[in-house]
Design brief:
37-stranded mixed sheet, mainly beta, 1178 residues
Length: 1178
């Protein structure tokens, strides 16, 4: 008995100090390790304190700081219950989860010190004094962005709400007329003069750069840095107007409006979009056009510069055919892409078939053949179907016949392993000590992917995926088209974090097998502490040993070397940030040799709103909206600190980059200046560029480019003329009397006189298959891709010299020999020789990258003397050309016949340096003078700052030319894959809603991603290091978020937690209630899931933003948005089919097992949230 009493006395103090018991709170324990009993020491413990109204007032993340202290976020409300200030988190002095009685003072204290020096560690909203509570000013944290209490001359985002005046906006309409032969509505453009005064809602938004009261007058010159949006009574966006200035060579500056009009038919369908160069008039070459059928489905569309595109649906509104699409085999034929689905709406088989005369009548005929629903089923026992000579484990319906000439491209398998190339019922009991799941119903299990070469050849890749008993991917194997394979096996811990990953790669069945292993160690706060890489039996190499500050920002990364503890790392990389989380510094540009550290091989600094070092006669200014005003860099090659200052127009397009050396006696040199001029659509009109010499005595102009565009298809570049006559930079053809460029019907470049390209052939994804130079069969580049568009081979024919490069799951082989493969911090260069081991000698090379992912410095340890040496430096003009004239000579690792069998030598021929991943980390293709960067979906030319293919996501950026690069702001944006620049922008009602949102997203991705935020506060997905694929439902969730993230339309969404005024979400007010959403999982299996509901609402907000609708308006296309979100997001993530009873409000979900789930949502008055009731219906 005595022992028991002592035990209780020992526990009670812990219970009492675990959280403040005098306040209401919600305590959450998230276990990171398995335990059979409740033990908070094994869990992440978080507490949210509530006020008397049940509102969160303080969020505490237990022991989450780098030193193991609590991280606290203060929450407060104004007299109307609005959260007008959103405080930043700060580290507590304690780790006991106690309520902090002085949160404001402690927040201020932390951000006054620790390098931030901010008097306002919070964002602030100034509301309109009306029942509407509309936002008038929005301030970011930091003194420079603080709300001014005396006037409006501050760097806040400002809003004004008005109505239109007379003759301010053109009245454009479309008339839709039913065509019974083509089964769609034909469209007619109608101009009806101008809107009368007061007929449109007008919102003016002024960005943070302009420190003045928002201007609502009519003087154009005063409207710079503002955007005007006009909407009708239904909330449809009619006009988006921005303002810009243009300075002519005479020095005179003119100011003008750039208008993008949105035109709707009588049914409210978006029918035309007229970008700025359309001048409010219809033109096939400049306008977006859309036609619909009697179910309001978009069945025809035309993007400027492309031919009409046609879309066919089945009875469930699933896209079954699109065309015209080029042949995957490079024949130049056109045809249709064709899709088949299973009964759960999952894409099962896709392919292509040829067709001629693809037009409205052909679409109608194909639509008539696909009006029913065709669902594929799997063989339950042994059996198979042969399609196009390929064995597939699907049964085609007896009444269904595939189109003539159908060529299968992709087969996706789910639920089991009964398909050719799979392991069968998994023969493995365990993988890396983890039990393998034998029941995988609902999960993707593998795929067959064609590698198109000829129509008669069926080279392919076969993949399968294996899961543990929790449904997490632990192995992914792909057999490549050459007979080899790639295998990735993952060891996961209790919460799904990656412990280690083993990769094996083999080019062919007879080739060497190369095996690597990556190990991850985490801090007590679940942040990556160390990351190592091991090749075969060699000693592990340190990739990163990380140090974080108290609020979790990475402040140091030790890289390289065999000391996994990081003490003796090759480089120790330091990072600094401003209060908005924007990266400020990589190392110290003032001094590369800091005490007790190895000499830094690269340093980089970014300025935003900071004091400008060189204003360049007022052209370079402090910037407050996230644009970069200056960058500085330094390397030990000559230890000179260099810099660029940047200027922008009012559309945030880069207009100038001014080069200087801050510490020189004559700092302003202009040696590598780049000046850019644009038209109304953002097409570049002129570039002036200096280069090749970094001296104070002379400046060399290497480019003086003038661009000529088609007068009908106004975004289509026809010619570039270089008046400088300098051989460097852009290479101009000697003949300027004819056009330089020609294009195909899809807007792809087909010839380039400047580079001697006489023909380019494209595949079904508009990727180049064959590039021919000078009409010669001995000067060409051939590419092979898999059906998904991943490049697997490149063959360069240069006379009698033929070079073949194989791209196999990251491992790159040159002429059948392994050349290099990537690591998280660079790559491994493999050298060969008569005395080298049979698997080659593997040499680690590390890369320094800047904020854009540009490879700046590559370095390695010299095997001969053990000294760290730079192999290559790359410093760039903003649009991607490399600086010449001051960087150290490029070197490479080469085989040697005596020990150490590897030597560093200068690069003599450019073709010898085979690692060419440079600007944005993309592969430079310089063979035969091509000089394009391969981004995956498109190829980019840094000499002229343009793509040579239309953006596959052009419809999401209709105010911009489909050929422009990164909105013409390459210092701020990147294009990860050639399909649109990156930038969901959430605000959080309180810290609890932020945590709940982040936890839900991580859970929805299967632990593969966590939520992050870029420098503008927009959502990003950050990899957790988990390297395998995941379930179909989790992948669908990831796809929804990536699609929203990659959309240029920023969805300004507020996240709340059990807000009684909102039930799940408000499309009109852009509110998502994450607390309500979490009730769906709590209600049990079946029906809607929390992840499915979040995916649905995210998709709706994205569609609303892309339609131009702003917060506070109910979009006219809300019904269509809802249906799209159910079909493309919710059903896929829930893995069932939702049917809605609009009379009763009930939702019926048809489950995979044949049962149905009835789902009812009702308010919960006590919590402010909801109750979800799910009932199984047999």
């Amino acid at each position: 008995m005595k022992n028991k009493i002592i035990y209780i006395l020992l526990v009670l103090p812990f219970i009492m100090i675990g959280q403040t018991t005098s306040k209401n709170y919600v305590k959450t324990l998230t276990y990171r390790n398995f335990t059979s009993v409740s033990n908070p020491d094994l869990a992440q413990v978080d507490v949210v304190y509530l006020d008397g109204l049940g509102r969160p007032i303080q969020q505490i993340q237990g022991k989450k700081s780098a030193s193991g202290k609590d991280i606290i976020t203060h929450i407060e409300y104004d007299n109307y219950g609005r959260q007008d200030k959103q405080y930043l988190p700060y580290p507590s002095a304690n780790s006991n989860l106690e309520f902090d009685m002085s949160p404001v003072g402690n927040t201020n204290a932390y951000y006054t010190m620790n390098g931030f020096y901010a008097p306002n560690p919070y964002s602030q909203t100034i509301f309109e004094e009306s029942p509407l509570s509309r936002t008038l000013r929005q301030a970011a944290p930091g003194g420079e962005w603080q709300v001014s209490t005396t006037d409006q001359n501050d760097h806040t985002v400002k809003y004004a709400y008005l109505t239109n005046i007379a003759n301010e906006t053109k009245k454009l309409n479309a008339t839709a007329t039913w065509n019974s032969s083509t089964k769609l509505y034909d469209i007619t453009f109608v101009s009806n003069g101008n809107y009368e005064a007061g007929k449109l809602y007008k919102t003016i938004i002024q960005d943070e750069n302009k420190a003045a009261a928002i201007y609502t007058g009519s003087f154009t010159a005063s409207k710079m840095n503002t955007t005007e949006e006009f909407k009708d009574a239904d909330g449809k966006l009619i006009l988006k107007r921005v303002y810009n200035s243009y300075t002519a060579s005479s020095g005179l500056t003119t100011y003008s409006a750039r208008n993008t009009y949105y035109v709707y038919d009588q049914f409210g369908n978006l029918t035309y979009v007229l970008p700025p160069l359309s001048s409010s008039a219809l033109s096939d070459g400049t306008c977006y056009q859309y036609k619909y059928d009697d179910r309001n489905r978009n069945v025809e569309k035309r993007i400027p510069g492309k031919q009409w595109e046609y879309i066919v649906y089945d009875a469930q509104d699933r896209v079954v055919a699109t065309g015209p699409v080029y042949s995957p085999f490079g024949t130049g034929e056109e045809g249709w892409m064709y899709n088949l689905y299973d009964a759960y709406g999952r894409l099962s088989i896709s392919g292509w078939f040829p067709a001629t005369g693809i037009d409205s009548s052909a679409r109608a005929a194909l639509q008539n053949n696909n009006n029913s629903t065709i669902n594929l089923t799997r063989y339950n026992q042994a059996g198979s179907t042969t399609i196009d000579g390929v064995t597939v484990d699907y049964i085609l319906p007896s009444n269904f016949v595939l189109p003539i000439g159908f060529k299968i491209l992709k087969v996706n398998y789910y639920d089991n392993y009964k398909f050719a190339g799979s392991p069968g019922n998994p023969p493995f009991l365990s993988i890396e000590g983890q039990s393998v799941a034998s029941v995988v119903t609902g999960l993707p299990t593998g795929s067959w992917t064609r590698v198109p070469t000829t129509a008669s050849e069926t080279k392919n890749e076969v993949s399968y995926i294996m899961y543990d008993v929790k449904g997490r991917v632990i192995r992914n194997r792909t057999a490549n088209h050459l007979g080899g394979y790639a295998i990735v096996s993952n060891k996961l811990d209790f919460d799904g974090s990656l412990v280690y990953s083993i990769t094996s790669n083999r080019r062919t069945s007879l080739s060497n097998t190369y095996t690597t292993r990556e190990d991850l160690v985490y801090t007590n706060q679940d942040r990556i502490l160390s990351h190592s890489h091991k090749i075969g039996t060699l000693a592990p190499q340190l990739m990163a040993y990380n140090t974080y500050n108290e609020i979790g920002q990475l402040i140091r990364k030790n890289v390289g070397g065999t000391d996994i503890s990081g003490v003796a790392a090759l480089q120790k990389v330091d990072y600094k940030y401003n209060i908005r989380g924007w990266l400020k510094e990589i190392n110290n540009t003032k001094d590369l040799a800091l005490p007790n550290d190895p000499q830094d091989l690269f340093a980089f600094k970014i300025s935003y709103q900071d004091t400008i070092s060189q204003t360049m006669n007022g052209r370079v200014k402090s910037l407050y909206n996230g644009n970069i005003s200056e960058t500085f860099w330094r390397t030990p090659s000559d230890n000179i600190k260099r810099a660029y200052g940047y200027s922008y127009d009012s559309q945030d397009q880069l207009t100038g980059a001014y080069y200087y050396i801050p510490t020189a006696s004559v700092p302003i040199r202009n040696s590598y200046n780049e000046m850019i001029y644009y038209d109304g659509n953002g097409n570049i009109r002129n570039i002036e560029r200096n280069g090749e010499s970094d001296t104070s005595s002379s400046t060399i102009e290497i480019d003086d480019l003038t661009y000529t565009y088609d007068t009908t298809i106004k975004d289509r570049l026809l010619k570039v003329v270089d008046a400088s006559a300098h051989p460097k930079g852009f290479k101009d053809s000697p003949t300027n009397t004819v056009n330089d460029y020609t294009y195909d019907n899809n807007g792809n470049l087909t010839s380039d006189q400047n580079k001697g390209i006489t023909s380019i052939t494209y595949n079904h994804r508009n990727l180049p298959l064959v590039i021919v130079f000078n009409n010669s069969s001995t000067q060409k580049i051939n590419y092979i891709y898999n059906a998904d568009g991943a490049k697997v081979q490149k063959v360069v024919t240069d006379g009698s010299l033929i070079t073949t490069t194989d791209y196999l799951s990251g491992f790159q082989y040159t002429n059948n020999v392994l050349d290099f493969y990537p690591t998280p911090e660079g790559y491994v260069k493999v050298t060969w020789g008569v005395s080298a081991p049979s698997l080659g000698i593997h040499n680690y090379v590390f890369n320094y990258k800047d904020h854009l992912g540009n490879t700046r410095v590559s370095y390695t340890v010299d095997p001969a003397d053990g000294i760290l040496k730079i192999l290559e430096e790359n410093h760039y003009y903003p649009f991607g050309l490399k600086h010449n004239g001051y960087t150290s000579a490029q070197q490479m690792l080469r085989e040697f016949q005596t020990e150490p069998f590897v030597v560093i030598t200068p690069v003599i021929n450019a073709s010898d340096a085979t690692y060419k991943y440079k600007y944005n980390g993309k592969e430079q293709q310089d063979e035969l003078g091509l000089n394009l960067y391969d981004y995956g979906a498109r190829n980019y030319d840094p000499a002229i700052g343009r793509w040579f293919n239309i953006d596959p996501l052009a419809e999401q950026m209709r105010r911009h030319s489909p050929y422009n690069y990164c909105f013409n702001n390459p210092m701020r944006f990147i294009d990860p894959d050639g399909m649109g620049p990156e930038i969901i922008h959430p605000t959080f009602a309180n810290a609890a809603s932020k945590t709940a949102y982040e936890d839900t997203v991580k859970q929805g991705t299967g632990g593969m991603y966590t939520v992050g935020y870029d420098k503008n506060g927009n959502v990003t997905l950050n990899s957790t290091g988990y390297s395998g694929t995941i379930t179909a439902q989790q992948q669908a969730f990831i796809d929804v978020f990536k699609d929203a993230i990659n959309s240029p339309a920023v969805a300004d969404v507020e996240i709340v937690n059990n807000d009684a005024s909102v039930t799940v979400a408000s499309l009109q007010d852009n509110i998502l209630d994450i607390g309500d959403m979490q009730e769906f999982d709590k209600a049990g299996p079946g029906g809607a899931t929390t992840a499915g509901v979040l995916a649905h609402e995210t998709k709706e907000q994205q569609l609303k933003a892309e339609a131009g609708d702003i917060k506070g308006t109910y979009p006219a296309g809300a019904t269509a948005m809802h249906k799209i979100a159910v079909r493309t997001a919710e059903n896929k993530v829930n893995d069932n089919y939702r049917a809605e009873d609009h009379l009763t409000g009930d939702n019926i979900h048809y489950e995979r097992d044949g049962t149905k789930t009835s789902q009812v949502v009702t308010p919960n008055a006590s919590t402010g949230g909801i109750n979800v009731t799910k009932t199984k219906i047999p």
